[in-house]
């Protein structure tokens, strides 16, 4: 607590798709082991290092255990603000890594082996809440940023824009967002599916289920240690000292409040490659602008602290909502997703450079 902590950055390389294989694309990204990956192509020969690298053969479980996601869940229960976000080109496997296959529903659940980081984290969170000697209250909120509008994915009725506010105590926050309590795995998975089905998606040349918005699912964790301390005047004749906190009748138990936020970013895309036009083109421009603002903040934060004086979080609503995670008091895991195809080389290199910069960013949890 209070010590500088580097963002944990892991890389996931998806397999070549059938379309890429039929087209004759070459695989230009190769894992070297020990968190290193090598890009080998004409006029490009570079090696990048990360906390961990998962190649095309890595399972969903391996990504969950190897990325440090389990530790992130435990830190959120301990009262820290924790965030995991997936970053990369459209069609690079971000949503699959976080949620698993998109074809799932409440009536047709996905195969357990294919579950993403979200569902595995929910299971871990609920298991931890049962094993720890604390009383946990859990709730969830689910938002999307679509064309620079923040919309609630859980509120009834058509999604409407919500105002984004600032306060000294809370930082940037969304006003009037709905937060729903839950106590079981079935309940939170139902909320996840409900919100995901309302999220804006479209098909284009690179992705049949392209996310047209950035989505943020936040789990709010309020814990209070279970205490059997006597009332004032009983036992030792005065307030008891429990876990280093003086207690009094009625409010004797120390409490913690943590958050676990999952951010599924819309993928960067080039209109020329996706064939987008009309509304799709407008959406793409909005997505790219917010991702550019995010990349700019990351590049500034990666510099030594004496080299920057201002981080432009206000340039987009995405960077405002990620301000605490990127440069504040949070603990953050970044999952960079890339394609190994030679056809996607330019976007892959861009993602690798941004991820390398993010690995140098530090926060003070």
From TrEMBL:
Q: Which GO terms describe its molecular function?
A: ATP binding; microtubule binding; microtubule motor activity
What SUPFAM superfamilies does the entry give? P-loop containing nucleoside triphosphate hydrolases
**Localization annotation:** Cytoplasm, Cytoskeleton
User: Which key words tag this protein in UniProt?
Assistant: ATP-binding, Cytoplasm, Cytoskeleton, Microtubule, Motor protein, Nucleotide-binding
Q: Where is the Kinesin motor domain?
A: 6-361
Cellular component GO terms, alphabetical: microtubule; microtubule associated complex
Tell me yes or no: is Transit peptide among this UniProt entry's keywords: no
- Which residues bind ATP per the record? 88-95
UniProt-listed InterPro entries: Kinesin-like_fam, Kinesin_motor_CS, Kinesin_motor_dom, Kinesin_motor_dom_sf, P-loop_NTPase
Tell me which Gene Ontology terms the entry assigns under biological process: microtubule-based movement; mitotic spindle organization; spindle elongation
Family, as annotated:
Belongs to the TRAFAC class myosin-kinesin ATPase superfamily. Kinesin family.
Q: What is this protein called?
A: Kinesin-like protein
Query: What is the organism field in this record?
Result: Cephalopterus ornatus
The gene name reads: Kif12
């Amino acid at each position: 607590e209070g010590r500088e902590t580097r963002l944990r950055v892991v890389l996931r390389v998806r397999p070549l798709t059938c379309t890429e294989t039929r087209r004759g694309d070459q695989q230009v990204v190769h894992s070297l082991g020990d968190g290193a990956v090598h890009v080998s192509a004409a006029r490009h020969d570079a090696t990048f290092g990360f906390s961990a690298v998962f190649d095309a053969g890595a399972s969903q479980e391996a990504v969950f255990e190897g990325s440090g996601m389990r530790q992130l869940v435990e830190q959120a229960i301990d009262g820290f603000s924790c965030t995991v976000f997936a970053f990369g080109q459209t069609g690079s496997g971000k949503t699959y890594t976080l949620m698993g296959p998109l074809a799932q529903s409440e009536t047709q659940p996905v195969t357990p082996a294919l579950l993403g980081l979200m569902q595995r984290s929910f299971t871990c969170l609920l298991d931890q809440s049962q094993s720890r000697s604390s009383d946990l209250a859990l709730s969830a909120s689910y938002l999307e940023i679509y064309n620079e509008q923040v919309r609630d994915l859980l509120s009834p009725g058509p999604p409407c824009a919500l105002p984004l506010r600032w306060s000294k105590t809370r930082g940037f926050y969304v006003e009037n967002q709905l937060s729903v309590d839950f106590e079981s795995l079935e309940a939170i998975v139902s909320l996840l599916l409900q919100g995901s089905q309302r999220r804006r998606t479209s098909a284009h040349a690179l992705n049949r289920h392209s996310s047209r918005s950035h989505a943020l699912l936040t789990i709010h964790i309020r814990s209070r240690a279970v205490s059997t301390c006597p009332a004032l005047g009983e036992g030792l004749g005065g307030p008891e000292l429990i876990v280093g906190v003086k207690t009094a009748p009625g409010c004797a138990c120390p409490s913690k409040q943590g958050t676990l936020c999952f951010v599924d970013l819309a993928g960067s895309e080039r209109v020329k490659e996706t064939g987008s036009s009309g509304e799709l083109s407008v959406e793409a421009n909005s997505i790219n602008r917010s991702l550019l603002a995010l990349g700019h903040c990351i590049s500034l934060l990666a510099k030594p602290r004496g080299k920057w004086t201002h981080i432009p979080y206000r340039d987009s609503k995405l960077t405002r909502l990620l301000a605490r995670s990127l440069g504040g008091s949070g603990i953050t895991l970044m999952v960079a997703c890339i394609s190994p195809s030679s056809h996607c080389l330019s976007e892959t290199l861009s993602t690798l450079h941004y991820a390398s910069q993010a690995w140098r960013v530090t926060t003070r949890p």
